Amino acid sequence: MRIIILGSGTVGSWIAETLCPNHDVTVIDTNPEVIQRLNDHLDVQAFVGSAIDSTLLFQAQTLTMDLCLAVTGDESKNVLAASMAKRMGCRRAVARIHSPVMFDKSTFDYETEFSIDRLISLEELTAIELAQEIRTPGSVVVEHVARGSIKVQSVKLSSKATILGKPLKELKLPGSVRIGSITRLDEESQERVTRLANADDILQAEDQILLIGDDEDVDALLDKSLNNQKKKEVIIAGGGNVAVYLATILESGPYDAILIERDLERSEALAKQLPDVTVLHADATYRQTLLEEHVEKTDFFVACMGDDESNIMTSVEVDDIINQNDGVERDDKTIVCVVSRPDYAQVISRLGIDRAISPRTAMVQQVQTFLTKGAVISTNKLPDTDIGVYEIEVQSGSAAEEHVLVNLALPLGKCLIAAVSSQGEARVPRGDDHFRAGDYVVALIHADAVEEVVEKFSGSSR
């Protein structure tokens, strides 16, 4: 693929280094020294200049690119640069942002108005990775697709869930939510097997299901699927954007979150912003603070305070406190911290920390989901299966635009069209649904059927 990266700071350089061995990568940055280093050490074509210089973008052949990644330190410049690249003919454009307000479509839809395929936040991606370690380790890491209108959430069912024991077709799920896949222990092989869900499936305790649909309706169903499950306590050290995103994500699950922030003004603001979270004004790097909050009793401890050293040392302190309590089982506790430096991550396991989350790695993994062709916008593989979650744009002149869903002749048992987003509204498609160009479809597809399914949504498929 041909990829242009606008901005070569820490994140941009890391992406370029990861992608250049297998892709044709072009980089633009205002720093001549950085550009020289990239040209000397990586197989990339690098230019000195502004990401919003139309002449330079043209010179860099942006109109022939498959993917534009605007990842400078200026979110306004990223939005403009990604929009310019898209208008010039780049197939897909992604912009990095910092402000959570830019995800709020109720005031202004930046993606639609600027014709950008995706806004991504390093802080949100990091929080999603952290949440997966708390909710369902090893499950697919997806939160929102289709420009944020569709949520994809993996959840394990408790024995008290109210949706057990009935066929899916009798569950009366919200019209915008669908159960896409079911992972269940196979009695013969004693291995967990994942398959596409169908209307006659009956859910069982310990099933892991993939919910796909409208954000609020998915959260409401999560409450039902986790009904009466004992709440677990999560202590979050730090009050930055990563902590806020994480606390917000956990609100839809059986968790009691406690957030510790050392700045008084910030902690007061967070208390108002997060009414369901206990916000404490204290310094989590002090052992006394951790002792006063009985950190040994918490189920999960997350350190995301902004610098690696504080995160690591605080996590080590928590591990020590837990180990000094004879009545506490260390294996029942999980300690996770955010670590930006890759060389630190190699020694984490030796320090009593269960998992280190790297923001840069989270960003690279997200970028790799955009390395797609044709009508496919992004793809995420379900762990240990050949099934992928595909975000597909319905293109003008495609079979999907011309025929109703039931007449598309999609491969039986190999594909499930789980949700569709049309003009920002998500719903579960019916057999008589007629898609329109520009609609976003979320499909679960087996690997051997991807090409056949995607062709139905591509402009040349008539």
Furnish the topology, listing elements before pairings.
Layout: E1 2-6, H1 10-19, E2 24-29, H2 32-41, E3 45-48, H3 54-59, E4 67-70, H4 75-88, E5 92-97, H5 110-113, E6 118-121, H6 122-135, E7 144-145, E8 150-156, E9 177-185, E10 192-196, E11 208-214, H7 215-225, E12 232-237, H8 241-250, E13 255-261, H9 264-273, E14 278-281, H10 287-292, E15 300-303, H11 308-323, E16 334-338, H12 342-345, E17 355-357, H13 359-368, E18 376-381, E19 387-393, H14 399-402, E20 415-422, E21 425-427, E22 440-446, H15 450-457
Parallel strand pairs: 1-2, 1-4, 2-3, 4-5, 5-6, 12-13, 12-15, 13-14, 15-16, 16-17
Antiparallel strand pairs: 7-8, 8-11, 9-10, 9-11, 18-19, 19-22, 20-21, 20-22
Helix pairs in contact: 1-13, 6-8, 6-13
What is the top-level CATH class of the largest domain? Alpha Beta
What separation lies between the terminal Cα atoms? 25 Å
CATH superfamily placement of the largest domain: NAD(P)-binding Rossmann-like Domain
How many domains would you count in the coordinates? 4
Biggest sheet architecture? 6 strands, parallel
